[in-house]
Design brief:
225 residues, six-stranded mixed beta sheet, five-stranded antiparallel beta sheet, 23 strands
């Protein structure tokens, strides 16, 4: 079970509001949903582990926060990593890749959960020896397999209706530097000319004009010639 809806009927519905929240795999306790609203997650493949339900007199305050009662995945991505190959896909700001294992990312695949939007997201990678690769659309691989070449930087951009609705932010974990700042809407993220491998990446969609997920300083470092 990944999500629930609860509602009252008849005389109970006239006198009371029903609030409920769920504890989900990875995310823990979400906020309170109310009177038939969805509570839980969709497309994350995260199980519900516990539920709380409270009935309160009609119009009384909620038992707690109500801002994030339901999480629906928008973007999925996975990395091809030295030694491990293709790793499991993650969603919406989760970390893809490895940390503290000194393993290079070799390829990246990004897709919208609703695949009909895949043509509206494009990305390219900077690969050891080969430099910047061609842009590809969502659902396709960027980088190399079986050539032992590290990814060093990435660009991601949105088009058409996705670009009208969202800004796309992404940041990378680079050898020596650790997590760099968040890049946005086609900016370069990572390093160039420094022979540093990428080890992990996070990607998130933010409502157009919304706040960045974190610091946007030092998202790209290029060696001066």
């Amino acid at each position: 079970m990944e999500a629930i809806k609860l509602h009252l009927t008849g005389e109970l519905a006239e006198k009371y509001d029903i609030y409920y929240r769920v504890h989900t795999q990875t995310f823990g306790w979400l906020d309170w949903a109310k009177n038939g609203e969805p509570s839980g997650t969709k497309d994350y493949a995260k199980r519900i582990e516990a539920v709380q339900v409270k009935v309160v007199p009609k119009g009384n305050p909620a038992p707690g926060a109500t801002s994030i009662a339901f999480k629906e995945a928008k973007i999925a991505y996975k990395t091809h990593v030295q030694t491990y190959g293709w790793m499991s896909k993650v969603h919406d700001g989760e970390t893809a890749g490895t940390s503290g294992k000194a393993k290079r990312m070799e390829a990246l695949n990004i897709a919208m959960v609703d695949s009909s939007y895949n043509k509206e997201i494009s990305y390219r990678t900077h690969v050891q020896t080969y430099g910047w690769q061609k842009w590809v659309n969502g659902g396709k691989n960027s980088g190399t397999e079986g050539k032992a070449k590290r990814l060093e930087a990435i660009q991601i951009e949105l088009k058409d209706s996705l670009a009208d609705q969202y800004d796309i932010y992404y940041r990378v974990h680079a050898q020596t530097y650790g997590w760099l700042g968040w890049a946005k809407n086609g900016e370069k993220a990572g390093t160039e000319g420094l022979a540093k491998r990428l080890e992990a990446i996070q990607i998130v969609l933010v409502e157009k004009g919304g706040a960045a997920p974190g610091s946007t300083n030092n998202f790209f470092i290029k060696k001066d010639k």
